[in-house]
Amino acid sequence: MAKTYSNHQKQLIKDYYRNLDKIALARLGELVSKIYLAESESKKDTLWKQVASDLKKLKVPPKIAQHIIKSRSPEILAKNINDWSR
Length: 86
What we know:
About 80% of the residues lie in helices and about 0% in strands. It is mainly α.
């Protein structure tokens, strides 16, 4: 059975996908804070996996994404987020 959406729901869905890049940037900013505050390495590993996923959603060039992930530096990630949000 096909799911039908109201006009309001359709508009919300359209807006979500239109702003997906802004949502991913905001999420990356939150992840930077969480990485700084993470106490265990396993928690940091999980957060960096989420960062990698969000970088793919933003379609960040693979070389840049690999550099960020390999460095595991929240400072580098934060600097790039600042540059991308301009």
